Amino acid sequence: MKIVILGAGGQLGQELLKNLNQEDEIKAYSRIELDLLNHSKVRNIISSERPEIVINAAAYTSVDKAEDNIDEAFKINSYAVENIAKCLKEFGGYLIHYSTDYVFDGKKEAKYLENDQTNPINIYGKSKLEGEKKIQNILTNFFIFRTSWVIGEYGKNFAKTILKLSKVKNNLNVVFDQVGVPTSTNLISKVTKNLINDLKNERPWAYGIYNIAPKGSTNWFEIAKKIISFCSQKDPSIILKSSNIKPILTKDYQAKAQRPMNSLLNTEKLQKLLQFELPNWENDLIEILNSLLKNKT
Ligand SMILES: NC(=O)c1ccc[n+]([C@@H]2O[C@H](COP(=O)([O-])OP(=O)(O)OC[C@H]3O[C@@H](n4cnc5c(N)ncnc54)[C@H](OP(=O)(O)O)[C@@H]3O)[C@@H](O)[C@H]2O)c1
Hints:
The radius of gyration is 19 Å and the shape is globular. By secondary structure, the protein is of the alpha/beta class. The chain starts with a strand and ends with a helix. The protein is built from ten helices and twelve strands. The chain has helices spanning 11-19, 39-49, 63-66, 70-91, 123-138, 158-165, 185-200, 220-231, 268-273, 281-294; strands spanning 2-6, 25-29, 53-56, 94-100, 142-147, 150-151, 172-175, 179-180, 183-184, 208-211, 218-219, 245-248.
């Protein structure tokens, strides 16, 4: 299949590029190669390449900075997405796009279903929701994967930050009252690959929104402890002890943007279609930690 990946330089974009089928004809564009704010260039590429699938892994993902850079967040997460959708409407092809648990306010007690009421509480969430809506208004043949707390081998993420800090700090305070699960770029890529294989084999999925997350429930404090207890056995440069990680409340951590207190996504809809069992969050995390340790990130 002919596939165009947009935002190929991000943590998910790089992982997709590594994991997708070699036999597919993949054209990958990082921001330097294709700035999605250049709408006519995006249109030219889609009209000349005529991909069967466009995967949009680009986004404005700095949740706190988005509070000040509202225009930039909306330009990338909404207007650029609208342009991609319009191009696909004109030239054909499926759109695979990624979104976030931050479209919800986090007030629900249970895990969020795909069709639960959205109500974002920060600019990033609002801009991502607007992007989702633009796609839904323009296209029928789209797949939006909502995911949470993304970690991976590439780019910036929580696991890499904790590992970096663990080499220079003896004590760390980490928020414990937001619930969710970390989701690896590896898992998101595997799900994306499963969908592409099913499209190829005419085992199509219903168009729409799907949640992707591993099984279970945890919080940032527990994840940080897990990272340190696992990695300190293998990396002697880690000086932070997991017992010196202390839980703090969200209200005591000064962040510009508000975060949902519940980021848990219900994945039953996705699991029914997948050819493999979603892992639990600890196994999903350990796979990433092993890669990070191997690459001494
Ligand atoms: N990270 C998370 O925790 C998280 C959680 C839930 C959902 N998601 C969603 O998952 C998807 C992948 O996110 P990620 O974690 O891989 O984010 P990421 O590492 O920040 O990657 C996003 C990529 O988009 C690129 N980009 C930004 N503006 C662009 C533009 N105008 N034109 C072209 N490329 C542009 C960025 O380039 P620069 O680096 O040069 O800016 C970056 O390479 C996104 O849809 C995101 O909203 C992420």
